[in-house]
Amino acid sequence: MGFWQDKRVIVTGGAGFLGSFVVAKLRQRGAAEVIVPRSAEYDLRRDSDVQRLLYQSAKRAGGRPQAVNMIVHLAANVGGIGANRARPAEFFFDNLMMGVPLLDHAWRAGVKKFVALGTVCNYPKHTPVPFKEEDVWNGYPEETNAPYGLAKKMLLVQSQAYRQQYGFNSIFLMPVNLYGPGDSFDPEKSHVIPALIKKLVEARDAGAAVVTAWGTGKATREFLYVEDCAEAIVLAAEKYDASDPVNLGSGMEISIGELIGKIGDVLDFHPRVEWDTSKPDGQPRRCLDVSKAEKLFGFRVRTTFEEGLRKTVDWYLKQLSARS
Q1: Which of 30, 77, 115, 217, by CA, is between 20 and 30 Å from 99?
Q2: pTM, 2 dp
Q3: What count of Cα atoms within 13 Å lies in the side-chain half-sphere of residue 140?
Q4: Which of 42, 123, 140, 148 is catalytic?
């Protein structure tokens, strides 16, 4: 708790899905001030807005740029396979330009630490399972999300370069797919868990006996409950100060076919699944080696997948009920 008492922290994306949990944890730990820039006021793709954010944040503390102790950079343009295939240029440009200038201006302004969030999409398409951090450069990312993954990966290059040349304390974390209450269920933006929850709930309510899902159902994924991920980020911000990237995950692996069954268990609804194999599976397998996060800053998951899935489904059903 004492670590945060004199810390003023900017959390980009702090009003979003993951960011809201990170902000809550920082406030619980007693951070002196948590600044959440909103996109309506600051477009982080614009150099002038990034400079204005840092200037105005410092100005509130007497005009000293070093008054902002830390930036936790979570802001991103994200989406599922469909969105990444439809808008690869946007995903590349937006994520590159929200990250690279921000880190540079943070160093110039005297910010003491920069926490950069990468993605499991940083990894090559055929990375051996479990994914180890040292394999992150051993091939090209999976094609459907490569522009997004490479844009985020440039923050790793920049983070290490700025530490080498300037001694800037920047760290880089790579989380797996997140899920939990507050996730986006918008079909244009949602990832696999909210997309499948929405699909099964709609099928159940319509009395349908069959649902259609993308791919073959054989691809595997690893999932991390959003609050656990927030805890990992805060622990790394407190305790980790090195250049090497670190995985954030649960260490579990589940196929998309099995995932549908798990969601069906929560809903007590098990329709027949027809697989649309004209649609891509994405990366064949995803499962991280999570040993470094535990060793370096003491992170271990607290939420079982079944518990987290039930909380996510319950939250979504409450949202539907509130709208009706």
Answers
A1: 30
A2: 0.95
A3: 6
A4: 148
